[in-house]
Design goal:
homodimer; about 325 residues; alpha+beta
């Protein structure tokens, strides 16, 4: 897996990353040219990749424990959106000179904790130097029974639209980290920052939605834009009730009206999904101990419409009514 | 797969990368959260990742057609070293502002040509902006019959050591590109530059070595260092005959003696493998139309020894005799 002659690359991999590969015999201790993994018959392999750059996707002074974990969770959120079970990942660490052993130890500790929590194991990767900012690229692999992967493209007119958890918390946390803290109790502020740094992949929900949801995706770029993508992939339209969206604490300032643009900020990593009206979600909220809120419905007419509590169309920065 | 709200990310993926995913239905046109792939029963999934940074692993003014192709080939070389058949890859493009449509079109054209040549298809990835140098990260997936993956760790005392092709050509090409061209005929110079920019993954050789080679790896960091790694992984030693190593044109200047350090430069991507002395390689060279040269033998005593043509130990910069 290595290509550069720098001996410290191999030392670094052996010290910080090889321990993360102990759970998978086919990772060969990160010492061979590649990993050899087993996929059970009847399972599809689900694969997703994301990259992050310091100063663009995370703050360079975020704790190292959260930086690798955030990238892992962002990828796990994609696996959740497909209804997949996490298995393995590869990681490229592209490191500037300031990265030292302490930083790497924290980075690896964050990954180790998340591996244990989410049942996924490092199986390969690369570690190279850069004169630029710290950059990370991760490819996550999971499995789903063949033919049961959730897709964005199956929503049908009349389906109800749901979101998990609450929307907008990550943006509140980012604002706070950038020196613009909203007026919030300390615990709520900490929760918002944690949401930005350590999103929670909705893996149990994704599994539960197999065979139930007609379409699903994770909300990474903002609810409005992502709902528009889901509707476009399904060749349908969507109506979203502005007052129905569950928002995180701090998103709406007390006494201020709700503004649709507050729903179109990224990094939430909740699931957005559609359920046939006649099916419903039964006791899924209770079983998962996770809020699942109906926020609108799929329409035959294409485009995204946002409605206020009186049923009037709302103009939103992303287009509100979006032509495809 | 996307996370940033920049609309041009999606436009860029749709224009330049989605056409590369047409060969795999489970890539969903790069429009879903992840790909869902099929692995045949009885096959292991072989996975490898490498990253490259402009100015470190390639020259920023290398033609865009060769930059993505080089990264793909470096990963294919790892698949070859495991005896695997290429199937799919994900690609993270981490792009500075100077990257424009022309550059991306050339980059994608280079990948398209290699996809056709090597039978591999893009199935996912990410495209993000960086204030730093152009950076690329690729994860390649292939398949091999379960239990037949070639490993570095199976070499036994008495096995013969072989290399494919010729050694050192990439370093000659790099020197030429850096303005230090060796005295070579134009065609040989071009071949050396091509070797640096577009290494040739030895996929057919890897497949043919299944069940035949006791150990294999690709030569990415230099023959001596990589042979030391293979011997260490196999818990054996190795003796290499300096005069037996097939070197590319331009590696040795006419009239100058052979110097072992010339064999320890990277980027060759030939295969290094061991074969039981009683087995031999039969007519493999003829069948593959590829030079396969016996360069030494595996010893029970650990460490790497390099011998000159008179059988004397040679002192080499990497240690010559390397204690593990």
């Amino acid at each position: 897996m290595a290509r550069q002659p720098a001996l410290d690359e191999f030392g670094l991999i052996a010290k910080y990353f090889a321990p993360l590969a102990r759970g998978e015999a086919g990772a060969f201790g990160l010492l061979d040219d590649a990993a050899a993994l087993w996929v059970e018959p009847g399972q599809s392999l689900v694969v997703t990749s994301d990259a992050m750059v310091a100063g663009v996707h995370f703050l360079p002074d975020d704790p190292p424990e959260t930086i690798g974990a955030k990238l892992l969770r962002v990828n796990l959120s994609d696996l959740a959106a497909m209804g997949a079970e996490p298995r393995s990942y590869t990681l490229a660490t592209i490191l500037p000179d300031w990265v030292d052993g302490d930083w790497l130890a924290g980075f690896a500790a964050g990954l180790a904790a998340d591996q244990a929590e989410f049942g996924i194991t490092l199986v390969g990767g690369d570690s190279v130097k850069t004169p630029g900012p710290l950059t990370l690229s991760l490819t996550a692999m999971g499995v789903v029974p063949a033919g049961e992967a959730l897709r964005r493209s199956g929503a049908r007119a009349g389906d109800n639209i749901y979101v998990s958890g609450a929307i907008g918390g990550a943006a509140v946390g980012l604002a706070a980290l950038k020196g613009d803290p909203p007026q919030l109790p300390a615990a709520a502020l900490e929760a918002a920052i944690s949401r930005y740094r350590m999103p929670v992949p909705r893996l149990a929900l994704g599994r539960a939605l197999r065979g139930l949801a007609t379409a699903a995706m994770d909300i990474s770029d903002g609810l409005l834009g992502d709902l528009a993508k889901l509707a476009k992939a399904s060749r349908v339209g969507a109506e979203l009730g502005l007052g129905e969206v569950p928002v995180a604490q701090g998103v709406v300032t007390e006494g201020q009206p709700m503004d649709a643009s507050l729903l179109d900020r990224g990094d939430d990593y909740e699931l957005l999904f559609t359920i046939p009206a006649e099916a419903g979600i039964g006791d899924l909220e209770q079983r998962l101990d996770l809020a699942l809120t109906k926020v609108g419905r799929i329409t035959a007419a294409e485009g995204l419409r946002v409605l206020d509590e009186k049923g009037h169309f709302v103009d939103v920065p992303t287009g509100g009514y979006r032509h495809f």
